[in-house]
Specification:
It is a single chain. This protein is mainly beta and 269 residues long. It has a domain of 133 residues. Helices cover 4% and strands 51% of the residues. The chain has a four-stranded antiparallel beta sheet with strand order 1-2-3-4, with no helix packed on it.
Length: 269
């Protein structure tokens, strides 16, 4: 699932499914699921020729925003496909990789790697929907790489988890020498997307793989490989756990132990 939007009669979720097609190519199909009447509708299809597929549907613009590496060598950019006309236009030209796309009324909230970056560091950036220079919302730390993002359009606050890009690269290199990979510290921040201010919420030794937020709590999933401090299972490759962090009292409580989630969203009833 790539996102959710609306309230009441207009509430829906959208998700992207990627599949192979003739000739060895791949494509991604975006679907819209109405939470009220349980109606599933296919929105449209876009090519999958990026480092990994990412496509989201914008109800207001009646358009699909997606990542593609078709025009610029060795880099992924954001494209917009008009659902009605099928016209496609490129929105960005300064990225290398894209990890998250969140369309808003006038802007697109993106987490990606700059094409000029010396290291693979993911930062949040605002882009104009019709193209234009992005507004970097990074915290000024060139080593702080965002792994996950949760955005609340009502509060205009973003929740993210980040880790040291340099430390991650160092530990990945050590793993090639048969050393066990141990995840660097993950820190959860709240970002005010209007001011760019970062507020640290908590830090954990676990690898945070998904985030969501309610009024009073942060829900997050941790993933741990075998022999990691969070994993005591002898027959599993990795263990996933879901925790609830109470923002008022600062307490973490384990909520569930599961086989693995790719994404996590909170849908208020």
């Amino acid at each position: 699932m790539t996102g959710s939007e609306g309230s009441g009669e207009d509430s829906y979720i959208f998700f992207c499914v990627t599949q192979g097609i003739d000739g060895g190519a791949f494509e991604s199909t975006v679907y819209r699921y109405d939470l009220r009447n349980r109606d599933l509708k296919e929105i449209g299809t876009v090519p999958y020729d990026s480092q990994y597929p990412y496509a989201v549907y914008d109800e207001r613009a009646q358009a699909i925003y997606y990542s593609s590496g078709a025009d610029i060598d060795a880099s992924d950019q954001i494209y917009k496909k008009d659902v009605a006309t099928k016209n496609v236009g490129r929105i960005t030209d300064d990225l290398y990789a894209i990890n998250c796309i969140v369309p808003q009324r006038n802007n697109i909230f993106v987490v990606g790697v700059s094409g000029k970056a010396k290291e693979i560091v993911l930062n949040p950036v605002w882009y104009d929907k019709d193209g234009g220079k992005g507004i970097d919302l990074g915290d000024g730390d060139e080593d702080n790489s965002i792994k996950n993002l949760y955005y609340d359009p009502e509060t205009k606050h973003a929740l993210c988890s980040a880790r040291s890009a340099a430390e991650h690269s160092k530990r990945m290199a050590a793993q090639m020498d048969d050393q066990k990979y141990i995840e660097p510290e993950n820190t959860v921040y709240e970002i005010d997307t209007e001011t760019g201010n970062y507020s640290e919420i908590f830090t954990t030794d676990a690898s945070i793989s998904a985030l969501a937020e309610t009024k009073d709590a942060i829900i997050y999933q941790t993933s741990a490989f075998n022999e990691d401090i969070f994993n005591n299972d002898e027959d599993g490759f990795y263990t996933n756990r879901i925790f609830v962090y109470d923002k008022k009292v600062g307490v973490h409580s384990e909520y569930a132990h599961n086989g693995g989630l790719d994404n996590l969203k909170w849908l208020s009833s």
